[in-house]
Amino acid sequence: MPPRSTLISICGSTYAEMRLLPGPRKDIAKVKAVFMDDDKTALPTRPAYIELQDPTSAEVRFAISSYTHTRTAQNDVLILYFSGHGVPLGVSDFGLCTKDTSLHPIEQSPNPLTLVRFTDILEALAVAHVNPIFIFDACYSGSAGKRMMVPFGDIAGTMLRSTIMTVAESYALLCSCSDRETTIDTDEGGQFTNLLLQTIEDGNPNLRKKEHLSAKDIFDPLRKIIESSGLDTAPRLYLGQTMIEEPIARNTQHSPTAYRFSPYMRRIVEHYYNSGSPREILNSDLHRQLGSTSYCNQPKLEFAPWGLLEEGTVRGSRRLTRLGEEFARGNATIPRAIILDSGKGAYVPAPDTEHVLITSI
Q1: Quick one: average pLDDT of 290-294?
Q2: Of the candidates 270, 347, 357, which has an alpha carbon nearest to the alpha carbon of residue 303?
Q3: Secondary structure class of 267 (helix, strand, coil)
Q4: Which one of 24, 26, 134, 216 counts the least CB within 10 Å of its CB?
Q5: How far apart are CA 313 and CA 304, in angstroms?
Q6: How wide is the angle at C-alpha 247 spanned by C-alphas 243 and 253, nearest 5°?
């Protein structure tokens, strides 16, 4: 079974009839490093990776078609990154230029038959029920957002309307500029891509409890760093109404929820142990007997891998588990500290924590 997530990374540096771009090849190398190679920023479960350097329009279409044909479940996630020339098409479409994109000899405008329409990509992904995340570093890339937000009645054709609106409800589009702006390419890559990857590497300190970041989580710090850099262009983020916040990178500022077994927790365990005669205690009685701190923190003692308390036979009461009783007797150890593993949705021993007896607390 193929991975649920796939990263297709496309660069356009060499063109037959358009200006050569030095940056895109650097861009996709850096994108691969951040999204695939670096353990600090890449997701624990790496996406499948497809790279297209200077492809023709037919090669791009073939890659996307092949991807959709390998989907085995609905709502797989595709991250589609593109760095290269882009052009607005009509009032609400966007074209990804490839090395075979040709120009009209007089007008010098791209021939739409020799590039990849954003609409074509949307239709192909909608048929496969894919949740796409688009990242475009190209001039006028905000034009793609206009396609996602086009009024329902302005799309001609029942089938086209259906497929476009389906995918438009479950997408994310992060682009380097508006539909009227150009982007800046350098020998070291596109400025948008460099700042985007810097933002991911810096993490989001305002979301320390989130281990992974979505495009939405990245956008605000990205916008601020672009503004502070003095660039004249502003990034755009478009989100579908039903788009789940799919993670695309680790949060390097992540600080997991953690608890450390403390003396007041020992007091709670000993109170339940009752000098060798374990008892059930109503939550309301515990509040009265030991105070609000113990009352509020006793649920933590139920978390695995501590597992010292469990629900009692009387509603609203708790009692020691078998491990809890052995721990209270001094016959069992527990990890001193535990942390929340967001991937598992459960607490696990903190790295390098010691295992302790109750007498050592």
Answers
A1: 85
A2: 347
A3: helix
A4: 216
A5: 20
A6: 135
Nearest of 61, 1, 81 to residue 248 by alpha carbon: 81
Rounded Cα distance between 333 and 118, Å, is: 59
Q: Assign 8 to helix, strand or coil.
A: strand
Where do the H-state alpha helices sit in 88-231? 118-127, 143-148, 158-168, 191-202, 215-229
Neighbours of 123 (CB within 10 A): 17
Q: Would you state the structure tokens that stand for residue 279, as one six-digit string? A: 């008892």
Find out whether 59 and 115 touch, Cβ atoms under 8 Å: no
**Around 253, how many Cα atoms within 13 Å sit in the side-chain half-sphere?**
15
Q: Are 212 and 46 in contact, with CB atoms under 8 Å apart?
A: no
* DSSP string covering 30-89: HHHIIIII-TTTS-SSPPEEEEEES--HHHHHHHHHHHHHT--STTEEEEEEEES-EEEE
Q: Are strands 281-282 and 346-349 parallel, antiparallel or unpaired?
A: unpaired
> Across-strand partners of 238?
173
CB 51 within 8 A of CB 60: no
DSSP 268: H
Give per-residue pLDDT as tens, 96-113: 999 999 998 887 888 999
Confidence of residue 160 (pLDDT cuts 50, 70, 90): very low
Bond preceding residue 44 cis, omega within 30 of 0: no
CA–CA dist 2, 25 (Å, integer): 27
Any idea how long the chain is? 361
Please list, in sequence order, all residues whose beta carbon lies within 8 angstroms of the beta carbon of residue 182, skipping any fewer than 6 positions away: 139, 140, 233
The tokens describing 270, both together, are: 């000993």
CA nearest to 92, candidates 54, 124, 122, 137: 122
Between 147-156, 284-293, 300-309, the lowest mean confidence (pLDDT) is in: 147-156
Place of tokens 């953690």: 258
What are the residues whose beta carbons fall under 8 Å from the beta carbon of 190, sequence distance 6 or more? 23, 24, 27, 83, 137, 176, 183, 184
pTM for this one? 0.80
| pLDDT confidence of residue 148 | 61
What DSSP line would sit under 294-340, residue for residue?
A: HHHHGGGGGSTTT--EEE-SSTTEEEE-HHHHHHHHT---EESEEEE
Residue 156's contacts (CB-CB under 8 Å, 6 or more residues apart) are none
